[in-house]
Design goal:
The structure is a homodimer of 217-residue chains. By secondary structure, chain A is α+β, with helices and mostly antiparallel strands. Chain A contains 9 helices and 4 strands, in the order βαβαββααααααα. Chain A has helices spanning 16-27, 49-54, 73-83, 94-110, 117-123, 128-150, 162-176, 185-195, 198-202; strands at 8-11, 33-36, 62-65, 68-71. Chain A has a 4-stranded mixed β-sheet with strand order 2-1-3-4, covered by helices on one side. Chain A starts with 7 loop residues before the first strand and ends in a 15-residue tail after the last helix. Chain A binds chain B through residues 55-59, 66-68, 70-76, 78-79, 82-83, 94-95, 97-98, 101-102, 104-106, 108-110, 112-114, 119, 122, 131, 134, 139, 141-143, 145-146, and chain B through 55-59, 66-68, 70-76, 78-79, 82-83, 94-95, 97-99, 101-102, 104-106, 108-110, 112-114, 119, 122, 131, 134, 139, 141-143, 145-146.
Chain lengths: 217, 217
């Protein structure tokens, strides 16, 4: 691969959706360049004209790869899965694939969007913590119940899947919002097992090019 | 197919996520039974113990099919696509598939969750309309720009895809919240073209078993 064809990931170290994609890239050993988009600095670099042209939704992640530009983390991961199938992030069996996508979408449509930065801004500073906690509790109550019937070592059986790529960043958000995880033993157990894997460690928010020095680990 | 193996869709006539799945079922000529879940009546039938056991997120749609129960509309549609591939709802080319999923997720993760019933309840009655309008405007500003580069007759090229199944119900929500669609000629044009198709008509909220008489058409 020539230098110019290296994929470019527009990412923010703390963005849970960016982290999902970083894990996929790491698991599939895809070499890429990071261009940080700081969602706080300069009143939000995602609002720059240059970035809006790449992603009109003004969100990270966005991936330039194979001559196209893709936004939306799950769309990116599905594209990586179809074009770089090894190791696979979706099981072979359609019913298991459905479980993986159901869990992924529960997080990506049912939890994360309701506690992301732009919503919390609208909710107002004094209500942010309670709002985020409520959203995550409602989602995790459901997720814990779903995982009890789908999980093995990981979210669905014993293979790492797209669902796991969604789970770990969402648990990190829960911790940031001080959500008590005691009622969620299955979520907590899977999260801990996944965090021991190298792909989850190299992609971690505390180890990105744009991680501020005081948050590095 | 025996009677007992007919798929069962838990649906609410007005739910835009249920409508997405109803269009997929219609396009693929899958015969199914509807069990209505009234999100308003009885303080919300989705909160019943019986329904929570099927879908811990307490949302519609949920589909019972092939011996499994799937929630999350896009996970359901992907399962239908993998098990009943004709007519296809995802293009063959991985880059076009990525565009379809990007548009679908923009709606399913970026717009709809922020204006659904449970969020609007939390926002409070006096703020609901302004909140929903803002969310949809932000999303449609982006969507219009994306579609300008992907659309043919439909959202991506000239074949109906999963993206179209997300677009039409979201436009219906926009109309319900009195969003001015003048700034979105591409969205409006595609929506109108799709609404002329039979699968979009038979699945329409005004023609469901649980549509109240005064809203039938």
């Amino acid at each position: 691969m020539t230098e110019s064809s290296k994929p470019i990931l527009y990412s923010y170290f703390r963005s849970s959706c960016s982290w999902r994609v970083r894990i996929a890239l790491a698991l599939k050993s895809i070499d890429y360049e990071t261009i940080p988009v700081n969602l706080i600095k300069d009143q939000g670099q995602q609002f720059s004209e240059e970035f809006q042209a790449l992603n009109p939704m003004k969100q990270v992640p966005t991936l330039k790869i194979d001559g196209i530009t893709i936004s939306q983390s799950l769309a990116i991961i599905e594209f990586l899965e179809e074009t770089r199938p090894t190791p696979r992030l979706l099981p072979k069996d359609p019913k298991k694939r459905a479980q993986v996508r159901m869990i992924s979408d529960t997080i990506a449509s049912g939890i994360q969007p309701l506690q992301n930065l732009s919503v919390l801004k609208q909710v107002g500073q004094e209500n942010q913590l309670a709002w985020a906690q409520k959203v995550i509790h409602t989602g995790f109550d459901a997720l814990e119940q779903i995982l009890r019937s789908t999980a093995g070592k990981y979210c669905v059986g014993d293979e790492v899947s797209m669902a796991d790529l969604c789970l770990v960043p969402q648990v990190a958000n829960a911790e940031r919002f001080k959500v008590d995880l005691t009622p969620y033993p299955t979520i907590s157990r899977i999260n801990k097992t996944l965090l021991a894997l190298e792909a989850f460690q190299v992609s971690h928010p505390c180890r990105q090019p744009d991680t501020p020095p005081e948050l590095r680990a």
